[in-house]
């Protein structure tokens, strides 16, 4: 399965198992979503459980809060993560805090799916990575898969979870892994080990990172599309780096991160989102707090720049192989 | 700088031979020191409004959004097509619950002034809006209120002490002292947790109603917001959703004419009514005399029957007046005419129902005075009881570590660490 099929399969499995799971969003019903992630679900489960919505993200999330309070498990789709901002208030002030403010009387057990990240020439409004905005807010979980296998297992866990969860889907790798070289032919998930996805139920617990590559020389913390770009750079440099795919930012698997950095003594953080106050800053602070006496070089960050996402200069903006290679060389010099 | 009109004018002077444009900034009819004037308000006769069938199409009842449903006339008689013809026990229950709400408000307002809590909001003059609706709904319908519908809890016989514990944020507060006073949550009373962010409850109520419909349930939802809050995007998102899916929901706009210091003109009242918002969405819209509890009851009952028979949502504007300040932090004499509230022509909801009951021969002044005395004692005793659990800032609160509970269903590691750190720091400080 490619990642879209894996995500579709996760919703299918959960709708089959749990009659309270409902899927909603712009174009998700009859058409099956602009990325086809919800294809076939309405035909199978009916319009009461899979339906198109008006174009109002604040309405979609607000309605999902009410459905969650009723006792359903909504899985709303925000068509692109860039369009999550109109729903920010309902996510941050309502969904994320309903359990707390009502001391557990009401909950909002929703999983908000949204394609995110750049690398598809999507311009400013189809490329952003807003995860840092949400990890800053208490009460909401943030999950980001990097393989079809993980995408299905994590999405199932998110839907079963009783807390509101943002499930950001790296759209650059929906159809195949991406090594960072935009000018070489696209690869597909077919035949890839991580595309061996069981058709039935399985879950990957939230808050457990994955060691994408074990190594002793350097720890690279990354998630989503960046896992593949980093894997490629590490392979071409022939360096024995440990690549930690975080999978979920909240909750964060700090144990795995700490153990890895203490082992390697060096740390690089890579994400697509803009740099200032980005999640990388949090990772850097935590590694510094916990591993300071084990570090043999300053921690480095490779991130998107603090500009809006540019269209024609996308590949200069994207934290690609050149910038990651330079950062690794710098860390390894010390 | 070049001429923005592109027509060759010089800076500061439009180049075209046109009159200058003017910005209209609304201004209320009267400011402090000026005399209030409601003569422009043409009140229809109490029996003037027709009563459409509950299943009527929205476009067949557009006029309802511009008229005013009334039942109690100037003499206190119940008249017209909307008269719900309620039995005496219901009328007296309405009267008692409105009076209880007013007594509760008075006591809690005083508690705030005495420094026992940080904040309070009264519903004086608007008691009919929440209580009339609550009594017209089923007990298991879900209410998504704003902060001025405490009457719903009282109409649903929620314990006074429980509400006061919340206001004092004390150790008896079921919300663990996390919410601003009056931001109640009472699931068992069908009362959704109140948010401080205006109008977020509107789409949530629609979502709850949609879920109920999708599951083949029989319960409906109702929600309330102020007229000022209708300007929020959530209001319009909610109307779109309610209309599109014909959600079994009642959307109430409490037009008490003031949003803190901003008069209703800043939400669009100079151009149309708030009930007329419904017209653009193809929703049934009713405009109701919000100080007439029989009219509020009848309209809500109509809307509930409509929702329950899958005929769709209703938007009800309750035309009323906010007699007191916005909250304990507000001084209305700074922005509006002092005499305005006494001149409001639709009167006081308690006085109007009282006159009606006296006219029916089921009530009298003596009994009313005795009831007021009894209710004042009731809330006083409840407040004393609640104060045993603590008042704000006097140390009788939930344990410190409870701050970290309920952020997530299970406490994640980083919160456990922060919780432990806080306890260690307090211990080290000898506390
Ligand atoms: C989103 C948001 N903006 C602003 C406020 C501050 N605020 C609290 S109440 C209020 C006025 C609301 O007026 P209205 O909706 O007419 O209700 P009323 O107080 O008259 O019952 C404002 C501006 C808020 N709580 N939430």
UniProtKB/TrEMBL annotation, chain B:
SUPFAM superfamilies: Thiamin diphosphate-binding fold (THDP-binding) (SSF52518). Residues 1-38 are annotated as: Disordered. Pfam families: E1_dh (PF00676), OxoDH_E1alpha_N (PF12573). Residues 1-12 have a biased composition (Gly residues). It is an enzyme of class 1 (oxidoreductase). Its EC number is 1.2.4.4. This is 2-oxoisovalerate dehydrogenase subunit alpha. InterPro entries: Alpha-ketoacid_DH_E1_comp, DH_E1, Oxoisoval_DH_suAlpha_N_dom, THDP-binding. The branched-chain alpha-keto dehydrogenase complex catalyzes the overall conversion of alpha-keto acids to acyl-CoA and CO(2). It contains multiple copies of three enzymatic components: branched-chain alpha-keto acid decarboxylase (E1), lipoamide acyltransferase (E2) and lipoamide dehydrogenase (E3). The gene is bkdA1. Belongs to the BCKDHA family. Residues 19-59 form the 2-oxoisovalerate dehydrogenase E1 alpha subunit N-terminal domain. Keywords: Oxidoreductase, Thiamine pyrophosphate. PANTHER family: 2-OXOISOVALERATE DEHYDROGENASE SUBUNIT ALPHA, MITOCHONDRIAL. Its cofactor is thiamine diphosphate. It catalyses: N(6)-[(R)-lipoyl]-L-lysyl-[protein] + 3-methyl-2-oxobutanoate + H(+) = N(6)-[(R)-S(8)-2-methylpropanoyldihydrolipoyl]-L-lysyl-[protein] + CO2. Signal peptide: none annotated. The keyword Oxidoreductase applies. Residues 96-391 form the Dehydrogenase E1 component domain. The lineage of its organism: Bacteria, Pseudomonadati, Pseudomonadota, Alphaproteobacteria, Sphingomonadales.
């Amino acid at each position: 399965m490619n990642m879209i099929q894996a995500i579709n399969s996760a919703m299918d499995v959960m709708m089959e198992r749990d009659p309270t799971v409902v899927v909603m969003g712009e174009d998700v019903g009859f058409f099956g979503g602009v990325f086809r992630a919800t294809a076939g679900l309405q035909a199978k489960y009916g319009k009461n459980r899979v339906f198109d919505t008006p174009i109002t993200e604040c309405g979609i999330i607000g309605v999902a809060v009410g459905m969650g309070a009723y006792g359903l498990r909504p899985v709303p789709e925000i068509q692109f993560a860039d369009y999550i901002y109109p729903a920010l208030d309902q996510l941050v002030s309502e969904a994320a805090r309903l359990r707390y403010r009502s001391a557990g009387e009401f909950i909002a057990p929703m999983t908000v799916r949204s394609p995110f990240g750049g690398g598809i020439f999507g311009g400013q409004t189809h490329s952003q990575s807003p995860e840092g905005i949400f990890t800053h807010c208490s009460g909401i979980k943030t999950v980001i898969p990097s393989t079809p296998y993980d995408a299905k297992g994590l999405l199932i866990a998110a839907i079963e979870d009783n807390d509101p969860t943002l499930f950001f889907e790296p759209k650059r790798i929906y159809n195949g892994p991406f090594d960072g070289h935009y000018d070489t032919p696209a690869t597909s998930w077919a035949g890839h080990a991580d595309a061996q996805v069981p058709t039935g139920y399985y879950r990957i617990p939230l808050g457990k990172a994955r060691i994408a590559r074990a190594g002793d020389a350097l720890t690279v913390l990354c998630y989503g599309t960046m896992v593949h770009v980093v894997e490629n750079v590490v392979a071409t440099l022939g360096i024995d780096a440990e690549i930690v795919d975080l999978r979920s930012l909240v909750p964060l698997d700090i144990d795995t991160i700490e153990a890895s950095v203490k082992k390697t003594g060096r740390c690089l953080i890579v994400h697509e989102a803009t740099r200032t106050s980005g999640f990388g800053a949090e990772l850097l602070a935590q590694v510094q707090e916990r591993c300071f006496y084990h570090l043999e070089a300053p921690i480095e960050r490779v991130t998107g720049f603090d500009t809006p996402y540019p269209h024609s200069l996308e590949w200069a903006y994207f934290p690609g192989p050149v910038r990651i290679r330079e950062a690794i060389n710098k860390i390894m010099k010390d | 700088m070049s001429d923005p009109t592109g027509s060759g004018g010089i800076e500061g002077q439009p180049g075209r031979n046109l009159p200058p444009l003017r910005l209209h900034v609304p201004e209320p009819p009267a400011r402090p020191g000026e005399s209030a004037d409601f003569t422009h308000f043409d009140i229809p006769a109490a029996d003037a409004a027709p009563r459409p069938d509950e299943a009527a199409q929205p476009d067949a009842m557009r006029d309802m959004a511009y008229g005013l449903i009334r039942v109690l006339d100037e003499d206190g008689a119940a008249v017209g097509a909307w008269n719900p013809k309620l039995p005496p026990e219901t009328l007296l229950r309405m009267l008692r619950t409105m009076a209880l709400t007013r007594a509760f408000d008075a006591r809690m307002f005083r508690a705030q002034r005495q420094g026992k809590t940080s904040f309070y909001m009264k519903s004086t003059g608007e008691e009919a809006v929440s209580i009339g609706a609550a009594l017209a709904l089923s007990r298991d319908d879900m209410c998504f209120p704003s902060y001025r519908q405490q009457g719903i809890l009282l109409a649903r016989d929620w314990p006074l002490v429980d509400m006061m514990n919340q206001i004092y944020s004390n150790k008896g507060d079921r919300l663990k002292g996390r919410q601003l006073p009056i931001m109640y949550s009472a699931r068992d009373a069908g009362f959704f947790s109140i948010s401080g962010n205006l109008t977020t409850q509107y789409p949530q109520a629609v979502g709850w109603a949609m879920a109920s419909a999708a599951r083949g349930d029989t319960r409906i939802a109702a929600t309330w917001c102020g007229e000022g809050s209708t300007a929020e995007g959530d209001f319009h998102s909610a109307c779109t959703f309610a209309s599109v899916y014909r959600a079994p929901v009642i959307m109430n706009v409490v037009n008490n004419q003031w949003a803190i210091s901003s008069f209703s003109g800043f939400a669009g009242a100079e151009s149309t009514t708030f009930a007329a918002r419904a017209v653009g969405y193809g929703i049934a819209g009713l405009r109701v005399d919000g100080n007439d509890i029989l009219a509020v009851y009848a309209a809500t009952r109509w809307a509930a029957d409509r929702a329950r028979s899958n005929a769709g949502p209703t938007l009800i504007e309750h035309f009323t007046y906010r007699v007191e300040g916005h909250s304990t932090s507000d001084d209305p004499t700074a922005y509006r005419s002092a005499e305005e509230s006494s001149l409001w022509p639709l009167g006081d909801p308690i006085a109007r129902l009282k006159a009606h009951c006296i006219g029916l021969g089921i009530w009298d002044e003596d009994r009313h005075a005795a009831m007021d005395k009894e209710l004042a004692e009731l809330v006083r005793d409840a407040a004393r009881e609640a104060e045993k659990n603590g008042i704000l800032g006097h140390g009788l609160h939930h344990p410190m570590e409870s701050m970290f509970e309920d952020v997530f269903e299970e406490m994640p590691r980083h919160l456990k660490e922060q919780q432990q750190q806080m306890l260690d720091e307090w211990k080290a400080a000898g506390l």
